[in-house]
Amino acid sequence: MAPFELSQPASLSDAIGLLDAEGARPFSGGTALMLMMKAGVLRPSRLVSLAKLGLDQIEANGELRVGAMVTLAALERNPAVKRSWPVITRTLRTLSNIRVRNVATVGGALAHADPHMDLPPLLVALDAKVTIAGPRGERRVPVEALYAGYLENTLARNEIITGVSVPALGRRAAAYLKCTTRSADDWPAVGVAVVIDGDDVRIVLGAATDKPTRLRAAEKALSGNPAALKQAGEAAAAEVHIEDDLHGSAAYKKQLVRVYVARAIHEARNALR
Q1: Which of 16, 69, 184, 219 has the largest count of CB atoms under 10 Å?
Q2: Are 68 and 201 found together in one domain?
Q3: What burial letters (b/e) apply to 216-239, b meaning 16+ CB within 10 Å?
Q4: pTM
Q5: What CA–CA distance (Å, rounded) separates 243 from 239?
Q6: Which pLDDT tens digit goes with each residue over 131-167?
Q7: Residue 243 and residue 138 in one domain
């Protein structure tokens, strides 16, 4: 691993200033960053720790607000999340393993932009917003707008994710299903998030595409015909470009999309009963 400087700013403005330098990268949980540095994929000259910025709080007053430095395990175990957003708790239980979840953070998981992550497609389906701080202040954008491609986000070099907010689930029903080719906590070959709000259905695909992707053709297939699960699955498989990777061929993943879109819709509907 190449040598680097570790900075531990005590304020958000100081952290943003430190990140403005060439070769600087934010450091939260480090579960992915350290692996990439050890492999020589990334060689930052400075890591800017976000540990002292007070971004480790969870608030659930109507909407859910999660600080960027909240660990995945803390989010998983939070009673308010389990009670009012149970789909998040269920999703986190099979996200990697408990050792990783004890260290990895919500902000890091979002910023990493690995399409195989389980949280981004679910948060997109839940219409969550991410708060981003930079030299010009804060901005809020849909989680979907955070991604540009494989391992590529839309953050400027000196911007930091400070948190994510999730609207109240209310009468909406949600489900997230994934298919792994090895253990249940492995990277998924396909992940599908579904949120049902009356006649409105949001379907988001992860892992099979280079970023979380709304399956609008599948959503349209269900419009006015709630029983059209097979048609929705076929429409989903037809509307996205899928490439081979270590988790399966494109043809295999297309078939998984057909099956898991229908299953996730069925799972979400069961939650309404």
Answers
A1: 69
A2: no
A3: ebbbebbeeeeebbebbbbbbbeb
A4: 0.94
A5: 13
A6: 999 999 999 999 999 999 999 999 999 999 999 999 9
A7: no
